[in-house]
User: Fold this.
Amino acid sequence: MNLILTLTVVASVAQKSLATVPYSNYILAPESRTIYPPRIHQVNGTLTNSKSLIGGPNGTATFNGVSSITFDYTKNIGGVVSVKVGKSSSPDAFVGLTYTESSLWINGQGSDATADAGLDEVIWLPVGEGPGTYTVERKYDRGAFRYLSVVSNSSATIDVQGVSVYYTAAPAQDLRGYSGYFHSNDELLNRVWYAGAYTNQICAIDPKWGNALVHLGTITKDQNISLPETVTWYNNATITEGRSAMTDGAKRDREVWPGDMSVALPSVFVSTNDLESVRNALNSLVSLQNATTGLMPYAGFPFSDLGIVSFTYHLYTLIGISYYHQYSGNVTYLRSHWDNFKRGLAWSLSYIDETGLMNVTSSADWLRVGMGGHNIEANAILYYTINQGLNLASILNDSASVADWAPKADAIKVAANKLLWNPATSLFLDNETTTLSPQDGNAWAVKANLTLSTAQSSAITNALKSRWGTYGAPSPEAGVPLTISPFIGSFELEAHFIGQETQDALDLIRLQWGFMLNDPRMTNSTFMEGYSADGSLHYAPYNNDPRVSHAHGWSTGPTSLMSFYIAGLHLTSSIGRTWKISPALGDLTDVDAGFETPLGKFSSTVSACNGTVKALKFATPKGTKGSVSLPGVKGELIGGTRGVIVKLVNGEVNDLPGGEWRLRCS
Ligand SMILES: *[C@@H]1O[C@H](CO)[C@@H](O)[C@H](O)[C@H]1NC(C)=O
Ligand SMILES: *[C@@H]1O[C@H](CO)[C@@H](O)[C@H](O)[C@H]1NC(C)=O
Ligand SMILES: *[C@@H]1O[C@H](CO)[C@@H](O)[C@H](O)[C@H]1NC(C)=O
Ligand SMILES: *[C@@H]1O[C@H](CO)[C@@H](O)[C@H](O)[C@H]1NC(C)=O
Ligand SMILES: *[C@@H]1O[C@H](CO)[C@@H](O)[C@H](O)[C@H]1NC(C)=O
Ligand SMILES: *[C@@H]1O[C@H](CO)[C@@H](O)[C@H](O)[C@H]1NC(C)=O
Ligand SMILES: *[C@@H]1O[C@H](CO)[C@@H](O)[C@H](O)[C@H]1NC(C)=O
Ligand SMILES: *[C@@H]1O[C@H](CO)[C@@H](O)[C@H](O)[C@H]1NC(C)=O
Ligand SMILES: *[C@@H]1O[C@H](CO)[C@@H](O)[C@H](O)[C@H]1NC(C)=O
Ligand SMILES: *[C@@H]1O[C@H](CO)[C@@H](O)[C@H](O)[C@H]1NC(C)=O
Ligand SMILES: *[C@@H]1O[C@H](CO)[C@@H](O)[C@H](O)[C@H]1NC(C)=O
Ligand SMILES: *[C@@H]1O[C@H](CO)[C@@H](O)[C@H](O)[C@H]1NC(C)=O
Assistant:
């Protein structure tokens, strides 16, 4: 009796903690860090009782001679594989493991790729040594795979009882304990939001197991390495301090890349809020800042050893410092990095010439081509970074920096519009010597407010929209064949949201991110690094198609953008001391979303009809204040339990105290 009671209590507590995470059924992160295969994709050769390997550790399968089994985990997972083996007929028996994110690269002789050419080598386990559990060395932690093949390469018979994966991603997280959530009446958008969140989870790694990049510079993209020749790989480089760090991609590179973080970081914030991984990643970049010049590295260690200069990625580290402060509210952190920020910005400003624009003298960027001179993207990012800096300087009362930076920002805006605006196409040119109008610089011009009017911004976003194809929004600056970059696409998406083109933004998410989720060559769970405008999974900067990453944090823009712009939860100062609630639903009828900052919870529950808000409930922390914008809505806001009433004036309310509010339409 007593025992039963205790069990009941335990069970109800466990259920309650689950119930506190809304919509947790959409979360893609596994329930347990030990994962057994859910599904068999394919068996080659003769394998008896293969189905017994599904779902648990006590199977009774037998490999009879040369044969293989490929498991489909139905989503991207990552970690360390163990194979539990019974008896085998030969001391020389081996089983090999091969991994791939995309079904395109299922192969018993190699994994998908991490180097610029060739497939990655098979990892062999000497299972003829006797019954037991054989586990790959930790350096063979495979960061991301949807398909795992277990291969027997000899005539031996081998009894296999179980295949398990220890999931190593997001080591500092309670994997399903999200602090943010998003739900709407559109299931595709819900899946996109959670896939973005999950992509960033699988890209957070234990920093002792980053990619050693041993073939960087030794195997090149022009090489042709074909089977049976394969390439060695191992993930045993310590890339930064701490127990967890954000990287660009789960399989590759497993390094800290500041550009990638500029999209990933806000999406981390609205979902898992794993800022510890963000801070460890940023610290590794700041620690590599050149003490003399102020230059930040292109990427973290070991890639940083190449000493490549990137004008844009340099700025992205400064943006990362600003975003980290915005979401953590950690002023101690800001103060301790303020000198780094100022010296970094001074480096960029020293490249501004007599035109008022920065002259980019190094080609390294997000692997687009033709980055140089008075490049519009780099100058828009500089303009944005200066404005981030002006905001931080005012928080720190650093008036000298404000006086130095503000005129330079103004001059960039004037010069960019004078030298690079092309009224004939309603787009900025890449630089003065070309007719090419890039996606990156134009999306960034709108995001950074480098434009002179909202009319100019919407001319840009309409021109970008007119270039969309069957699979998404193209980046003509990324070379041939025409590329879709979900990284730059995330900035274009934000540009549409900024321009209040909610319907266009929703259409782009459904088109481009919907393709990435639903196409059978993909993982149905994480977003890939880039692909071609014709829908082939070839990313122009690489020759080696199996190398492309299918879990890249830089492709997760929709997650934060849907929380900010659709649910309308905007933080207008760090951690939401001030905020703006301005939901915009496009063709959606219902949205329910929230996230947390150190001040407390922000949430909104909205219904709309044909774009006009019909019902709204929202909550912001006590002690904060903000504004509400509901264009076309007449009515009043009713606050808290005491029923305070505040009338909307032209659909707006300002200086509203934080708390729980609901809309009553009139
Ligand atoms: C697997 O077998 C072991 C040993 O017989 C047993 O302890 C364990 O409970 C079994 N696990 C499952 C999930 O059946
Ligand atoms: C199994 O055979 C199919 C068809 O030949 C092949 O595509 C696949 O790569 C093989 N799987 C493995 C793990 O070798
Ligand atoms: C199977 O692979 C292992 C590891 O590469 C190798 O040592 C062994 O000779 C191979 N067996 C056969 C029969 O090829
Ligand atoms: C690479 O080598 C293989 C085998 O020698 C050959 O079939 C293939 O055409 C080559 N590919 C390229 C791109 O050179
Ligand atoms: C990483 O593994 C490689 C290959 O086994 C080894 O040569 C290297 O010493 C290891 N590096 C570290 C830092 O452990
Ligand atoms: C810092 O930059 C200076 C000037 O470019 C260069 O000579 C020096 O080697 C750099 N320092 C480091 C540690 O890379
Ligand atoms: C704030 O930043 C400081 C300096 O980087 C760090 O030591 C501290 O742990 C941070 N605080 C929190 C709550 O993260
Ligand atoms: C100007 O832009 C074009 C198109 O991207 C590019 O080909 C060219 O190299 C750029 N100029 C410089 C100086 O980088
Ligand atoms: C940028 O600087 C380089 C190197 O000093 C110079 O060759 C180039 O002409 C400059 N470009 C522009 C557009 O001024
Ligand atoms: C954008 O810049 C214009 C001036 O060009 C300014 O009036 C407007 O307030 C700015 N918008 C924002 C959101 O800062
Ligand atoms: C993709 O994943 C979703 C859950 O996120 C699932 O409902 C759907 O069936 C999966 N699609 C396929 C084709 O497996
Ligand atoms: C929906 O809104 C659009 C644009 O505001 C308008 O043209 C259309 O008539 C509206 N449809 C309905 C059913 O109200």
Q: What stands out?
A: Confidence is low (pLDDT under 50) at residues 1-17. The radius of gyration is 26 Å. The CA atoms of residues 45 and 132 lie 24 Å apart.
